[in-house]
TrEMBL record:
The keyword Kinase does not apply. Keywords: Metal-binding, Nucleus, Zinc, Zinc-finger. It is found in: Nucleus. One of its GO terms (molecular function) is zinc ion binding. It comes from the Eukaryota. This is HAT C-terminal dimerisation domain-containing protein. It holds the Pfam family Dimer_Tnp_hAT. It comes from Rhizophagus irregularis. GO terms for cellular component: nucleus. Residues 150-230 form the HAT C-terminal dimerisation domain.
Amino acid sequence: MNLAAQQALTTLKAIEDNEPSNENSGGSLIHKPINTLSNSDQNLRALSINEEEWEAAINAINKLKEYYNKTDTTLYTVSLILDSRLKLEYMKDNEWEKCWIDKTKNDVSEIYNTLYAPKEIQNTRIECNSSDENLVSHISKQQRIESIGELDRYLKADRAQPLTNVLKWWKLHEEEYPHLANMAKDYLGVPATSASSERIFSSAANVITYDRASLAPETVRSVMYLKHWYRSGLLA
């Protein structure tokens, strides 16, 4: 039995028996079985499970694929690729199917080329001699080639170290990837979940009580700011 199959079998048994496995969290419990089961039916057969369990696992993976393709994962996939610590290698390292990797790369390329890549410079009539015209044409062409190749150059470059601050990394490499950096600012600045905003609403409910329902918006905003700054250690 190969290593991936052994890991999947161990995890599946842990889930079935509701016992802790070697994984650190519930999310990672599902991670390796999904990758293993989705790659090939042979891995399933290697688990030595009975026919009913094998069929149930296949149905579960097919259902996962069906709904995964129906979700809008663009924000997450673009953010994943623009995370200089991960890039496409994260998907390859975790054995994502090739069709998903290709789709992710195509989606990122399409968004970049449509919204962020520099547009072709329109020809304008400039009175100059032939040597000057050739020089301007060469410089413009070289700039377009370098700019359009930003995404490819970024993907081929080495990944950043695991503990790298991604936003600071993009700030340091902004001159190297100017247009791609703008895309990174837009996507990496979006919260991955709504948990933080939900906490703000819950905290605001403690400020705007029934006894203080007539507080002005400016007052509520000021109280929320002071509360956050105090908890963050910005106020003594």
